[in-house]
Amino acid sequence: FPTDRETINYLRLSGKDKQHLAVVEEYTKVQQLWYDKNSNQEFDELIEFNLDKVKASVAGPKRPQDKILLEDVPYSFSSIVEKNPNSTREKQQLESGDIVIAAITSCTNTSNPNVMIAAGLVAKKAVDLGLTVKPWVKTSLAPGSKVVSDYLDKSGLTQYLNEIGFNLVGYGCTTCIGNSGPLDGWVSKEINQKKLSVCSVLSGNRNFEGRIHQEIKANYLASPPLVVAFALAGSIHVNIQKDAIGIGKDGQEVFLKDLWPTTKEIESTLQTSLSSDMFVSRYEEIYKGDENWASIKTVSNDTYEWNDVSTYIKHPPFFDDSSIKTMQDIHEARILAMLGDSVTTDHISPAGAIKEDSPAGLYLSERQISKQNFNSYGSRRGNHEIMMRGTFANIRIRNEIIPNTEGGITHCYANKQDMSIYDAAMEYAAQSIPLVVIAGKEYGTGSSRDWAAKGTRLLGVRAVIAESFERIHRSNLIGMGVLPLEFTNGDNRKKLQLEGNEKITILEMNNITPNKLMHCTIKGESLLNLIDLKCRIDTMKELDYYKAGGILQYVLNLIVDKAS
């Protein structure tokens, strides 16, 4: 959308000074980016749609791009588990389809005052009507800015959010990155004992498998006011568009229409509760921090002083091996993992909680770190030892080398044992056996997570062979010296009947060029396939990065050359 007067109004509200506003307006007008209804507008594409046909929707249960109309949400869950129509519920008895986490979260969605005020108004009406959140729902409020708390406080809506359980838990990355904390003990116990498929609803940006919580299989993304409504309903089987959400204090059924605020209610509340002074006061000293921040001891050196005992930040090994030979032929590589379609960067490098019995958990336990202090993969991205162990460790990843299983395990053909993918990679490395990963379509979709490529490289993977790649992850693999290769001629792991025990050979690596067809030999116990793979190094600059062993080595070489 072009810049217009509303853009300037927004910038003014968020505390920008007059000079800033003037620069934005003048610049966009000079660049012909300013909307003027009286001038002839030229657009590359015109899209017309009827506002009467726009319907409320959410996304889920496994990918943010999977839009579902609000009225169809209960049916979307049937792909995971069928509702038992004859089931009865005790007060504290969990069923599949129950919502066990409802979180108003995400720095993105909580930055919209309209939807945050709407969530508060839904909470107010729910309290006034006598509704409460179901006892199995863990609720939380984690906005991305303290300004949100300021205008919710001033509007008087904070007390209503608190009354139904949406208490402030902090500012920053919480539930949307897997930092919700544990579920109530009885909830967790029932999920695991009954093998229930339960849900979360949050106002976050992403809902990939295993990301939100390890005990939750279905995760739906919704607006903040809908998150409140789902928390009141307590089950994804409730069609909140049509069904009663609950029973009010007068014994009458309460529907979404009884809770939903009007545009006028939202706007009038905003006018009396939100001002530019809030932004100015909160952000004018944002970099000063509190006494805890001020008390951190720092050393003013040109280089960082590594702490050998730290489990958060360790000296990375990316420059330790000066003998990286990405252009060497790949001889009889083993398949570390064989994966399906839409493998996300969350599958490859999870950011959430660390399991106690995982390689990363065992690493921390060996260093006397208690389980309650494990924190998350995301918080320990400065420690390559943990991130290596977390690569392909998502609890929902499915490695077809060991069919009908979930989690980061594989069969290691070097010692003929089933083990974690990390342990297998280390066993192969000890025997100098190169590795490849096989995958389906859309490999590396999702967050542009650099550790998905870094971890792959550190496990000793020389190449990833897939039907197609997500753009950014393909680039990141090259940047870490891992070769992305694409099946051609309709080939894939299923057509080639791969089982995971095959050995992969790729020759003429020293003659590699962008998009070159590479000859690949796949040798199995009872098969021999000769196929062509397309090199997905797409540009000469990417080829330069790859030849150097990755972009880090490339930059280091530039610095050394310049110094000499």
Number of domains: 3
Task: Give the full name of the CATH homologous superfamily of the largest domain.
Answer: Aconitase, domain 3
How would you characterize the largest beta sheet? 7 strands, mixed, barrel
- What is the gyration radius calculated from CA atoms? 27 Å
How do the strands line up in the largest sheet? 9-12-13-14-17-16-15
**What is the number of beta strands?**
17
Proportion of helical residues: 25-40%
Oligomer: single chain
Shape: globular
Mean pLDDT: 92
The CATH class assignment of the largest domain is Alpha Beta
Q: How much of the sequence is in beta strands?
A: 5-15%
CATH third-tier fold name of the largest domain:
Aconitase, domain 3
CA-CA gap between termini: 50 Å
**What structural category do the secondary elements indicate?**
alpha/beta
Low-confidence runs of at least 5 consecutive residues: 83-88
Helix count from the secondary structure assignment: 20
CATH architecture descriptor text of the largest domain: 2-Layer Sandwich
Q: Can you describe what's shown?
A:
The protein is globular and about 70 Å long. With about 575 residues, the protein is of the alpha/beta class. The protein has helices spanning about 5-15, 20-30, 75, 115-130, 145-155, 160-165, 185-195, 225-235, 255-260, 265-275, 275-285, 290-295, 345-350, 360-365, 385-390, 420-430, 450-460, 470-480, 540-550, 550-564; strands at about 55-60, 65-70, 100-105, 140, 200, 220, 245, 255, 330-340, 410, 415-420, 435-440, 460-465, 485, 505, 515-525, 530-535. The chain starts with a helix and ends with a helix. α4 (about 115-130) crosses α10, α5 (about 145-155) crosses α10 and α17 (about 450-460) packs across α18. The protein has 20 helices and 17 strands. The model is unreliable at about 85-90 (pLDDT under 50). It has 3 domains: about 1-55, Aconitase, Domain 2 (3-Layer(aba) Sandwich), CATH 3.40.1060; about 60-80 and about 90-285, 2-Layer Sandwich (Aconitase, domain 3); about 330-355 and about 380-564, Aconitase, domain 4 (Alpha-Beta Barrel), CATH 3.20.19.10. The strands form 5 sheets. The protein has a 7-stranded mixed beta barrel with strand order 9-12-13-14-17-16-15. A 4-stranded parallel sheet has the order 4-3-5-6, with helices on one face. A hairpin with a 5-residue loop joins β7 and β8 (about 255).
